Amino acid sequence: MAEVAIIGGSGLYSILEGATEEEVDTKYGRPSGPIAVGKVGGIEVAFLNRHGKAHTLPPHKVPYIANIEALASLGVKWIITSNAVGSLDIGYKPGDMVLFDQFVNMTHGRRDTFFDGPEVVHTSVSDPYCSTLSDIAARKADELGYNCHKRGTVVVVNGPRFSSKAESAMFIRQGFQTINMTAYPEVVLAREKKIHFLGVGLVTDYDNGVHLPHEAEPVTFDEVKRIFDMNVEKVKRLILETIPEIKAQTLSCVCEK
């Protein structure tokens, strides 16, 4: 049984020691792929590749509800996620890390609740991300000397296309810091399962419309992947340093309530 889980790309798989893979099925269908279970600092940890082993699932086709259900069925109580994000704020630079504290959902058609009736539940997500996990990660980022923003709103779009300049300009005017295609609905589904949730964003590009001294180049997947691959070791190190601290903390968050 793994109480801690990581959701991210294949670059994070190597975090686990002695990993074995488990095929899990749920009443919501199969998750994105097999769930690897191994050790991090002696702690049993599950890993799920959000887009599938060969990155075959685009953002709007990821089975988010099956993924969270599968992890919950393994006994997971803490989830750490990794997301590539575009910057909507000139102060959030490519290569920086962001610990999300808020989201804005601009997606459509994604199943985002376990409560479809007859039981009716209205879940509070005023503070959707776990303050306990965020505090641990923030402290570890400082110790590692990383340029890490301790707060940041991520606006989540459906994808798989990138935003138009007009859309980016609208998000910038609203004061959001980052943009992404996969950060929702994982966080709210985890809250419904009373799972503590940390969202770690890695800034890979400036989105269209960010006011730079020169006009930002249009975003491309190749450039996003290049910057992410250059910095993925920092994400891995932050997660490796965060996990052993989790169980030793006194909970001050509302995630289980």
Features:
single chain, 257 residues, alpha/beta, Rossmann fold, 11-stranded mixed β-sheet, 5 helices, 11 strands, 25% helix
Structure notes:
With 257 residues, this protein is an alpha/beta fold. It has one domain: Nucleoside phosphorylase domain (Rossmann fold), CATH 3.40.50.1580. Helices cover 25% and strands 25% of the residues. Strands 1, 2, 3, 4, 5, 6, 7, 8, 9, 10 and 11 form an eleven-stranded mixed sheet that branches. It is globular and about 50 Å long.
Report the portion of residues in β strands. 15-25%
- What's the CATH C level? Alpha Beta
Gyration radius, rounded:
17 Å
Instruction: Determine the N-to-C terminus distance.
Output: 23 Å
Low-confidence stretches: none
The largest sheet is: 11 strands, mixed
Task: Summarize the helix and strand pattern as letters.
Answer: EEEEHEEEHEEHEHEH
Structure class = alpha/beta
Number of strands: 11
Overall geometry: globular
Number of helices: 5
Number of domains: 1
CATH topology type = Rossmann fold
**What level of helicity do the residues show?**
10-25%
Architecture (CATH level 2) name = 3-Layer(aba) Sandwich
CATH superfamily descriptor: Nucleoside phosphorylase domain
**Roughly what is the average pLDDT, rounded to an integer?**
90
